[in-house]
Amino acid sequence: MVGGTGARDDRHLQQAEEDLLDDSRSPKPAGLHDWAQRHAEQSKFRASGIYLGALGIGYNLETLKSRKLPEPKCWADLLDPSYKGEIQIANPNSSGTSYNTLATLVQMMGEDKAFDYLSKLNANISQYTKSGSAPVKAAARGEATIGIVFMHDAVAQTVEGFPIKAVAPCEGTGYEIGSMSIIKGARNLENAKKWYDWALSAEAQSHMKDAKSYQLPSNRSAEVPKEAPKFEEIKLIDYDFKKYGDPTVRKALLARWDKEIGAKAN
């Protein structure tokens, strides 16, 4: 029995700490990117990353042009008053994407400055959605101009033919690691381990393009979808999954968001 998730890589680390996962040490770690190897080590080899997805901005080129708005390139740009009512982001209570955004800004700016930024950003937010990918889908339909999302969700809209451009904020940005793990006490452990090793192989991960998944595969030899963001050009922060996945830290940040941002949301 294998458990997997996308944005909630921190949950795997929590479950590893609680001894709920089996040792799933793979014979393939040498072929994985450094970030994936660090993730496996941090989980005491109870979890493995299969992809990395960078947080970013997706915006509608046609809507931007018709409304004569500047192109957003940085986190700071999103505070421009001309974007009032033009931006959507998910609610961090319901969305792993948005919690990742919150934790990213706190790590980049410090907690107080991050909440000051979010308070100012609130003036430009038209809606806090439930789903993390919903903001860029709204932008694709012309219902918003800008969505704060994982970049691969923006790319997926571009591939579908919508005039969406994905941008990595110039100051730097956070990311998710799509993880998998084997639940302790699995009834079909040997088969689970075989599937686990296959999922980490270059062969398996090279099929991401067929599944219209535009993240960075964890296997160095896997084929990266040509439409995927150019990860070598993205400035990734050293995201602390263990700290910001801790239930106490998460609860405190969400409580402050509810009090200072959610309570005065448009």
SSE order, one letter for each helix or strand: EHHEHEHHEHEHEEHHEHH
Helix share, percent: 25-40%
Termini separation comes to 43 Å
Q: What is the residue-mean pLDDT, rounded to a whole number? A: 90
| Total domain modules | 2
CATH architecture of the largest domain: 3-Layer(aba) Sandwich
Write down the oligomeric state.
single chain
CATH class assignment of the largest domain: Alpha Beta
Tell me about the biggest sheet? 8 strands, mixed
Describe the structure.
- The protein has 266 residues and is an alpha+beta fold.
- It has 2 domains: 2-52 and 175-229, 3-Layer(aba) Sandwich (D-Maltodextrin-Binding Protein, domain 2), CATH 3.40.190.10; 54-173 and 244-264, Periplasmic binding protein-like II (D-Maltodextrin-Binding Protein, domain 2, 3-Layer(aba) Sandwich).
- Helix content is 38%, strand content 17%.
- It is built from 11 helices and 8 strands.
- Strands 1, 2, 3, 4, 5, 6, 7 and 8 form an 8-stranded mixed β-sheet that branches.
- The longest helix is centred in the middle third of the chain and has 14 residues, at 96-109.
- The chain is globular, with a radius of gyration of 19 Å.
- The termini are far apart.
- The model is unreliable at 1-7 (pLDDT under 50).
Topology:
Elements: E1 2-5, H1 9-17, H2 34-42, E2 48-60, H3 61-66, E3 87-90, H4 96-109, H5 111-122, E4 125-129, H6 134-140, E5 146-150, H7 151-159, E6 164-167, E7 175-182, H8 189-199, H9 202-205, E8 216-217, H10 241-245, H11 247-260
Parallel strand pairs: 3-4, 3-5
Antiparallel strand pairs: 1-7, 2-5, 2-6, 2-7, 2-8
